[in-house]
């Protein structure tokens, strides 16, 4: 099976040029001018961009969030991903207290393997840090799970303390994996919520007051100090504020291996949403920030201080899930959907608005996620020998982001009505078309589990 993609504009994190791409046995076998080999399929990509398949290293599929089940399983979640131009998701396998890591990985493989339309990998999000859990990490790394996460703000026992965080950083790094941290100060957030609740202020309107940027920046700075002490790299998930970016930048300027991810919603939506009647739709942690933070986030992406944009796709419905927290937002599951919208939204807010170059966009959505999470150069670029994972993007056909176009099962779209610049035309995974003009062509179970390489800081 060979496919010849003619006349496209190939765009990677480093280059842009017109070329033909020959795909053989699921891999890119040749890139060049006017390739004239015989192929079983020819695709004309004239006037279109050919980008490496986007990689989303932050999804929560078929899982429990704050005691509720997400409405997307691996079939609908990865179908939405594929339609939006994403060919790999790295999902958070969520350990439950008292459950081993091998058991957690087996559970996530059982959920994903029969259903995933795209290729997939897992991080494991730890619910607890103790000797039994830490001793399983090397075995997980051998199985291809090379990143682990803790949260400093988790509810109840999921909240990891400083000493446990140091143990976590050292044991994960020693095993050749990348430690990831959700950094907000949970104790201070509890205090602020208690004070607000005493005044009857528990709705999502008060999220900015309960989880201000300082509680994010404090936790980021603390973890940076702990990682420095532990002599390990650290990756911050979903960084949201200028205050936190400042801490990352100082550490990186000092030469410390600190990496950071942000999400489309922090770049596009802002805290004015919390003034709306259905504010709880936008309950996520950290919360959306005032719009001025966005300039700092875009600058940090251009300077390389933020390396990754992940969606934090958490599909929970408004009706019956989010709306349980209308009066008390902490009774709502946090997060919202975004795996399908990520590429088009960033192309619009970044490229169209002149805030990013195409190269930086590819780097943030594909190349750096592949490098940091052990998938490069098989994934994350367009090169001879790489998997033929690509998005053929039509920059001329605008569309509107909406619930109507979304393949997620979720009942609302956080970006409803946003005009998106261009559209994914064809999405190709290992040489097979898995989505065409927003419709899924790939089959459930067609995605492969990725055995990721040990972490090598990029
Ligand atoms: Zn998340």
Within CATH, the superfamily of the largest domain carries the name: Metal-dependent hydrolases
Q: How many independent structural domains?
A: 2
Mean pLDDT: 97
Q: What's the CATH topology label of the largest domain?
A: TIM Barrel
Inertia-based shape:
globular
Task: Assign the structural class, choosing from mainly alpha, mainly beta, alpha/beta, alpha+beta, or little secondary structure.
Answer: alpha/beta
Any ligands, ions or cofactors bound here, and which?
zinc ion
Radius of gyration: 21 Å
What is the helical fraction, as a range of percent? Answer: 25-40%
Low-pLDDT residue spans: none
The count of β-strands is 22
CATH architecture heading of the largest domain: Alpha-Beta Barrel
**Would you state the CATH class of the largest domain?**
Alpha Beta
Specify the number of helices.
13
Largest sheet: 9 strands, mixed
Distance between the termini: 34 Å
Give keywords.
single chain, 458 residues, alpha/beta, Urease, subunit C, domain 1, TIM Barrel, 2 domains, nine-stranded mixed β-sheet, nine-stranded parallel β-sheet, 23% strand, binds zinc ion
Structure summary:
The chain is α/β, with parallel strands linked by helices and 458 residues long. Helices cover 30% and strands 23% of the residues. The protein has 2 domains: 2-51 and 383-440, Urease, subunit C, domain 1 (Roll), CATH 2.30.40.10; 53-372, Metal-dependent hydrolases (TIM Barrel), CATH 3.20.20.140.
């Amino acid at each position: 099976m060979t496919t010849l993609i003619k006349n496209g504009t190939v765009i990677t994190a480093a280059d842009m040029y017109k070329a033909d791409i020959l795909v053989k046995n699921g891999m890119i076998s040749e890139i060049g001018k006017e390739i004239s080999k015989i192929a079983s399929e020819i695709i004309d990509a004239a006037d279109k961009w050919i980008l490496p398949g986007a990689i989303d290293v932050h999804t929560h599929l078929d899982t429990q969030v704050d005691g509720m089940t997400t409405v997307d399983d691996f079939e609908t979640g990865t179908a939405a991903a594929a339609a939006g131009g994403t060919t790999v998701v790295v999902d958070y396998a969520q350990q439950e207290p008292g459950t081993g890591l091998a058991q957690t990985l087996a559970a996530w493989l059982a959920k994903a393997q029969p259903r995933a339309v795209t290729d997939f990998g897992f991080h494991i999000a730890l619910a607890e840090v103790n000797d039994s859990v830490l001793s399983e990490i090397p075995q997980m790394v051998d199985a291809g799970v090379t990143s682990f996460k803790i949260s400093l703000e988790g509810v109840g026992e999921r909240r990891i303390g400083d000493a446990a965080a140091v143990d976590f950083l050292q044991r994960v790094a020693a095993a050749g994996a990348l430690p990831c941290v959700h950094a907000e100060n949970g104790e201070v957030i509890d205090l602020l919520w208690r004070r607000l609740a005493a005044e009857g202020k528990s709705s999502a309107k008060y999220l900015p007051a309960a989880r201000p940027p300082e509680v994010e920046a404090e936790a980021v700075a603390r973890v940076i100090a702990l990682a420095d002490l532990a002599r390990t790299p650290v990756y911050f998930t979903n960084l949201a504020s200028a205050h936190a970016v400042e801490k990352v930048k100082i550490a990186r300027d000092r030469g410390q291996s600190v990496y950071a991810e942000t999400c489309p919603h922090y770049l596009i939506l802002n805290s004015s949403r919390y003034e709306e009647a259905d504010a709880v739709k936008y309950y996520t942690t950290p919360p959306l920030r005032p719009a001025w933070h966005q300039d700092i986030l875009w600058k940090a992406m251009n300077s390389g201080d933020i390396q990754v944009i992940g969606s934090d796709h958490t599909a929970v419905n408004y009706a019956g899930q989010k709306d349980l927290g209308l009066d008390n937002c902490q009774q709502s599951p946090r997060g919202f959907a975004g795996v399908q919208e990520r590429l088009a939204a960033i192309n619009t807010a970044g490229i169209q608005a002149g805030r990013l170059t195409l190269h930086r966009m590819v780097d943030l959505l594909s190349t750096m996620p592949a490098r940091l999470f052990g998938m490069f150069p098989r994934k994350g670029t367009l090169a001879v020998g790489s998997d033929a994972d690509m998005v053929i993007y039509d920059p001329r056909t605008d569309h509107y982001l909406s619930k109507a176009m979304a393949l997620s099962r979720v009942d609302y779209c956080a970006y409803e009505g946003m005009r998106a610049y261009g559209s994914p035309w064809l999405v190709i995974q290992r040489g097979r078309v898995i989505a065409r003009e927003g419709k899924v062509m790939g089959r459930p179970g067609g995605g492969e589990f990725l055995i990721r390489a040990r972490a090598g800081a990029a």
